Amino acid sequence: MFQIKQPPLMSCRVRHSLPGRMRVDCRGLKYLNGHRGDIKEQLEGCAAIGSAAVTVVTGNVLVTYNPEQAVPEDVLDQINNVVGAWSLDAYKGEREAAQSRLLEERRLQEEPISETLQRIGVTLATLAFTWLSPGRSKPGLVGRFLNMPALTALTLSGPIMKNGVKSLTHQGRPNADTLSSSAIVASILAGQSVSALTIILLADIAELLTAYTMERTRKAIRNMLSVGEEHVWRLREDSTEERVEIGSLAAGDRVIVHTGEKVSVDGKVVQGEAAVDQSSITGEFMPAQKAKGDDVFAGTVVKSGQIIALAERVGDKTAVARIISMVEEAAHRKAAVQNTADRFSAQFIPVNFALAFLVYLLTGKASRALNMLIIDYSCGVRLSTATALSAAICTAARNGVLIKGSNYLEQLSEAETVVFDKTGTLTEGRPVVQTAVCAADEIAEKDLFLAAAAAEETSTHPMAIAILDRVRRSGWTIPKHTDNETHTAMGVSTRVGRAVVRVGSQRFMKESGIDPTPVLDRAHRIARKGENVIYVSRGKKLLGVLGVQDVLRDDMKKSLNRMRHLGVDDVILLTGDVEQHAEIVAARMAMDRYHAEVLPDEKAETVLRLQSKGARVVMVGDGINDAPALAYADVGISMGTTRTDIAMEAADITITGDDPLMIPSVVRLAQKTMGIVRQNFATAITVNTLGIMLASIGVLPVFWGAVLHNASTVAVVINSSRLLMHDMEQSR
């Protein structure tokens, strides 16, 4: 609604073409100045192209070619291939350029709330004293600046005037503060010092609402991620404990964490065992068992047991501290609509001055001209937009969703393509045994599992863990066995009693002289369901097969359906898993298409290819193998039980819980936010335009012009604040 649709960044289009000569436009070239020589060299190395001239200022390339060797379509394809190789650099450059173009205004909403409250208190007291004072008269020109309301207005407007003058002298243009300063001084000159105070009062109320919203946002994020401990127990060299402030910790210290306490450092367990609740960081519902050598992270809670952790990162270097810092820095990453609001406000300010001059020339009435300065569009549009975006981030943080910048809300609201990773995202990332098939009736299922567990007991492979977990949950005792032997790419073997137990692939069975025929049909059916088939034998006898599968998350299908209802029309599976498993998962989830057996860098390239076609891409992954794709998607969403620093730092939005329904809930929140922003734009423009029209014909006095303008500002800010009460749980 607020932006002109531009061609995709890396799309190459022919501007004009003659036989043997072609000029091609590509917007991405504007951000590739450092690679201009390389692009020219690669283009001239193409078989059909004779010479190339790359112009980054206008974003086009002029090539000459032999028309007898190639047709224009082939030349355009070659240019596309060469320029497309620099997609990552172009997208990075575009984002950096977009941030550098943001218009800077005085950020009153970042002033302490206490200071704003003091200003409002002083203004109200002055207004009350003025209204109660009898015998008010209009003093001379100098006297108009020396009465109490005028002096109060001038004192309180000091920061506003300072920034307004600075904008004129340093940036060469007026800003909202320049306009407000002019209106305040003009009001006092006209003997309307009460109107000047009213301008300041209502503006401060709007600023207070915005400041309150942003303060709640910061608090929600800090509560979500904070370590929450002020003192910790440190182990001295003589093995005695001492209670110290958390700020005094250093890398290399040994920290003792008791039951019920939060871990205060990132480090490794050097002694003890404990069940640690990592849900606030990784989203994992069940506490993780931590023992010597395991990693622990600041902000997690010891539910039972006691550990001694060797501090590796403390204070601002912990994963949680880095995340909080990134989120606070992200406040400067304005959404495009917020930048549009600032630009709209700044561009309309000179119009206010022009209207004031024109009205004075036509009517000779200073009061009517003054209203042209008092009634402006900037405050309402600017403050309500910032409040809406901040309130949405606050609401998300309260519900365990970390949004690292308001720009991601706008992009998420416009998303039409969503790319999903499989393992750990669509699936739980914890394989389980789904099927057990015995090769003969006389073979018990228990014997099948115990044989497999004996061979897999020392393995850390996910499928081995699934088998061992099933045996332990059943309360069975794994039989004694010799050391396990690994057979690369085939399986493992061990000796139980006198018999050799083998666990692995069909090929492993055949090469060991074991006939897999009795279970082949059922094994094929298991494989068609997307399960990994594991053969188990003892001696020369086949015991059976186990089907192990990483199960799909509950409610994931429902989540995808809701996203389609919200306007997402292209859902893609992107996985490093084998083709067969990818096809099965994509079919079960009713996804539009899939790409299997892709490496992490290939995932990023796939995302960029989608973007080059003009799609707004959201990537949902686990934050480890998906880190490049998460980084280059328009919005990267991380969820699942993955490692903290990668999962939360690579993504733009982090869902700390494991509930897939939070994905459409965040999309719905983003869409509601942008809807409220559009409402505020329409309201502010309509009300203030009406006010300007009424003031110019003399119907609206100066005082009521100030009330109308500032009341509309307060109204749209309150409308934005409604997002603080948005219920993401109910919207699921």
Textual characterization of the structure:
There is one protein chain. The chain is an alpha+beta fold and 732 residues long. Among the domains are: 13-100, Alpha-Beta Plaits, CATH 3.30.70.100; 231-317, Calcium-transporting ATPase, cytoplasmic transduction domain A, CATH 2.70.150.10; 408-428 and 553-661, Rossmann fold (3-Layer(aba) Sandwich); 432-549, Calcium-transporting ATPase, cytoplasmic domain N, CATH 3.40.1110. The protein contains 26 helices and 24 strands. The strands form four sheets. Strands 5, 6, 7, 8, 9, 10 and 11 form a seven-stranded antiparallel sheet that branches. Helix 10 packs antiparallel against helix 11 (366-374), helix 11 (366-374) packs parallel to helix 25 (702-721) and helix 24 packs antiparallel against helix 25 (702-721). The radius of gyration is 33 Å and the shape is globular. It starts with 12 loop residues before the first strand and ends with a helix.
Tell me the layout of helices and strands.
Blueprint: E1 13-18, E2 21-25, H1 36-44, E3 49-55, E4 60-65, H2 72-84, H3 87-100, H4 113-132, H5 148-156, H6 158-171, H7 176-189, H8 193-225, E5 231-235, E6 241-245, E7 254-257, E8 266-277, E9 288-290, E10 295-296, E11 301-313, H9 319-329, H10 336-363, H11 366-374, H12 378-398, E12 401-403, H13 406-413, E13 417-420, H14 422-426, E14 432-438, H15 445-456, H16 462-473, E15 485-487, E16 491-496, E17 499-504, H17 506-511, H18 520-528, E18 532-538, E19 541-549, H19 556-565, E20 570-574, H20 579-588, E21 593-595, H21 600-612, E22 617-621, H22 627-632, E23 635-639, H23 644-650, E24 653-655, H24 662-696, H25 702-721, H26 728-731
Parallel strand pairs: 13-20, 13-22, 20-21, 22-23, 23-24
Antiparallel strand pairs: 1-2, 2-4, 3-4, 5-6, 5-7, 7-11, 8-9, 8-10, 8-11, 12-24, 14-19, 15-16, 16-17, 17-18, 18-19
